[in-house]
Q: What sequence folds into this?
């Protein structure tokens, strides 16, 4: 089994106008590599979940991970902010670099890393506290605000950037768990933004949402990609096509193919990618 | 066609009736199960009702007491001013009672002895204290009042009846006549037994109260709570949230579960060996009792805390870790507060269990007669369940009604604790 591993350097020029009807970044914008993974292997106890995954993820672009269930896409995503550290039987090998810095070395504190690499989960998981507290929690524990006014400003701007401010401005002190599913997910995104991350990881952020809420989140993702490097795991190929500029296809724990989204969807190089995209399995 | 159709419809009818039969059987089974469940609840409730009725009917008479007021002339000739403590005030009280009854003591003092069986020795002490406070009252007539002795009290409560043969009852005919006469003269008053709540254990039933035991129980429970809850919660948090899962944590978990099932008297043995013999903690003190009961309550607190921590959805931990909270921040800011209602309920249940525990306390010598209220955690004290045990073992009948009354006090104590648990739970749960 060969692993197709395109590098980012020659990916920009392959972008042409999209058949799938979404805007693409120009070559120079997507050009720089934010995250570089090299030969990542992940084991859950005896079972190996990822095999030699090497991938470059570019700055200021949305990268989507697609693939059938259990293919390892979420596992790889969780390697990027070392969320897998919290699972005792999980072992990660290989190197992952963010801005050229290895995140698995001793000198990197996972707590600091997770402030730089925010995460949004499959199920909206706001804290059972007020909307304000949900957003203010991160800045507070990281000491990002020196006073109440500054904290208020961070909360407001985060909620604005998450497109939620207009809906919740008059009820900031009400529980975040009382919002609708889509609002909760945007609240969670605001909570991640509030810490000022460079990368936002999204693990199937719309799988628990209805189509309208999904559309809102996708719109938001499109707005946020100017400021953050966004990696999204999705089950929906249509969503990958809509929101992402680059796509990586995982299968059976291996990275099969990655490249510009339109290329993966129109001209996949691997037959497995083709089979998956045309709906023959998964 | 018709030949074929007939068996088909017959089959159909057959299937239909079989189906209806099954449906009927299903309904019957469901009805039966509901009936069983209802019966189980009725049986449980009736047992509870029998228990409570028995305790209340046996103990409720404790709360009324019959007392008597007597005018005692303080004859200077009978009082030795230089030796007040040595003066026999009891005989003066007895004579005053006899005078009231229109009788006179004989030369052998038989009548006054019989009167002393009816009147509490507390009267003599009252006189002594009055004279000590104001010696000028010698020579005057003073009034003292107090409870009748337990047997006289029981006569008025109908526990001792004249119809019983004289040799089988504690009061003879003459004493009963006197009591009837006293009552007719209006000297005997019925009132609420305040002394039961303001006095501690005594050798005289009419003087015995639960105050010492209630205070002792409260102090002991305080020691237990202060030790078992923080240690138990911290141990559970560490085991559940921080400890690497492996063989060692498994061994520890199994052992904690085993400890929860260890008979409580074994903890008494442990307390005897460890706290008394090795560490020299004062025997029979609330501190010692609290230490032993804390050991006993610890496994329950740990198990309750662990299960309520487990019940907090992992998404909350992930959410906190995802914004860069450290593990301890995730636990103390989010997980533990959410687990708090469960922790509270578990802890208070463990404490309520500890409150009613008797066996380990007998083992560490808390079974002694303690006539006062403990002033410090290291002083000898008695606690409610042990007080119940001591009174139940007493030979005097009047102690038995006090046993039931002490059980009622214990039950009220527990109901109060459970109420506190519910209130705390509500308050913590309101924080969503």
A:
């Amino acid at each position: 089994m060969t692993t197709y591993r395109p590098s980012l350097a020659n990916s920009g020029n392959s972008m042409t106008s999209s058949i799938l009807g979404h805007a693409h970044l120009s070559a120079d914008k997507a050009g720089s590599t934010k995250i570089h993974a090299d030969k990542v292997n992940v084991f859950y106890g005896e079972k190996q979940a990822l095999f030699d995954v090497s991938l470059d993820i570019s700055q200021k672009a949305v990268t989507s991970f697609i693939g059938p269930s259990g293919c390892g896409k979420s596992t790889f995503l969780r390697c990027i902010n070392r969320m897998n550290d919290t699972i005792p039987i999980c072992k990660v090998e290989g190197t992952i670099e963010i801005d050229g810095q290895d995140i698995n070395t001793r000198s990197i504190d996972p707590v600091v890393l997770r402030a730089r690499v925010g995460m949004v989960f499959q199920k909206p998981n706001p804290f059972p506290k007020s909307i304000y507290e949900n957003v203010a929690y991160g800045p507070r524990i990281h000491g990002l605000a020196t006073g109440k006014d500054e904290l208020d400003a961070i909360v407001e701007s985060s909620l604005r950037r998450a497109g939620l401010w207009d809906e919740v401005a008059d009820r900031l002190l009400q529980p975040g768990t009382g919002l609708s599913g889509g609002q909760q997910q945007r609240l969670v995104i605001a909570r991640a933004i509030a810490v000022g991350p460079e990368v936002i990881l999204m693990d199937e952020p719309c799988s628990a949402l209805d189509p309208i809420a999904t559309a809102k989140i996708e719109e938001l993702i499109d707005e946020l990609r100017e400021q953050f490097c966004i990696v999204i795991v999705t089950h929906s190929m249509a969503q990958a096509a809509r929101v992402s500029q680059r796509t990586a296809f995982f299968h059976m724990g291996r990275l099969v193919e990655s490249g510009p989204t339109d290329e993966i969807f129109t001209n996949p190089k691997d037959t497995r990618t083709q089979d998956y995209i045309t709906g023959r399995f998964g | 066609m018709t030949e074929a159709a007939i068996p088909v419809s017959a089959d159909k009818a057959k299937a239909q009736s079989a189906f209806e039969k099954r449906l009927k059987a299903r309904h019957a089974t469901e009805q039966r199960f509901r009936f069983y469940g209802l019966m189980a609840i009725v049986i449980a409730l009736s047992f509870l009702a029998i228990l409570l009725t028995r305790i209340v009917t046996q103990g409720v008479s404790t709360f009324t007491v019959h007392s008597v007021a007597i005018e005692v002339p303080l004859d200077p000739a009978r009082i030795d001013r230089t030796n007040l403590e040595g003066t026999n005030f009891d005989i003066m009280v007895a004579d005053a009672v006899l005078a009231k009854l229109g009788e006179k003591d004989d030369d052998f003092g038989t009548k006054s002895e019989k009167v002393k069986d009816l009147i509490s020795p507390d009267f003599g002490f009252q006189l002594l204290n009055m004279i000590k406070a104001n010696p000028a009252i010698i020579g005057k007539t003073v009034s003292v009042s107090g409870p009748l002795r337990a047997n006289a009290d029981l006569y008025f409560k109908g526990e001792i009846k004249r119809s019983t043969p004289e040799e089988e009852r504690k009061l003879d005919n003459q004493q009963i006549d006197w009591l009837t006469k006293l009552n007719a003269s209006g000297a005997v008053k019925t009132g609420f037994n305040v002394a039961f709540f303001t006095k501690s254990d005594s050798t005289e039933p009419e003087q015995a109260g639960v105050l010492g035991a209630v205070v002792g129980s409260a102090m002991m429970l305080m020691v237990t709570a202060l030790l078992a809850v923080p240690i138990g919660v911290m141990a559970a948090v560490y085991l559940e949230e921080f400890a690497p899962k492996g063989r060692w944590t498994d061994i520890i978990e199994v052992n904690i579960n085993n400890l929860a099932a260890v008979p409580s008297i074994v903890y008494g043995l442990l307390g005897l060996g460890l706290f008394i013999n090795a560490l020299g903690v004062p025997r029979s003190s609330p501190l010692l009792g609290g230490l032993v009961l804390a050991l006993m309550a610890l496994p329950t607190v740990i198990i309750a805390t662990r299960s309520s921590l487990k019940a907090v959805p992992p998404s909350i931990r992930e959410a906190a870790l995802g914004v860069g909270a450290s593990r301890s921040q995730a636990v103390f800011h989010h997980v533990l507060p959410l687990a708090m209602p469960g922790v509270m309920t578990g802890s208070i249940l463990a404490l309520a269990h500890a409150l009613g525990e008797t066996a380990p306390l007998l083992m560490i010598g808390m079974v002694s007669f303690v006539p006062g209220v403990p002033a410090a955690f290291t002083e000898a004290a008695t606690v409610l369940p042990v007080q119940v045990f001591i009174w139940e073992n007493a030979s005097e009948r009047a102690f038995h009604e006090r046993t039931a009354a002490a059980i009622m006090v214990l039950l009220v104590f527990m109901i109060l604790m459970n109420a506190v648990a519910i209130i705390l739970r509500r308050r913590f749960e309101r924080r969503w």
Observations:
- Chain A has one domain: 8-277.
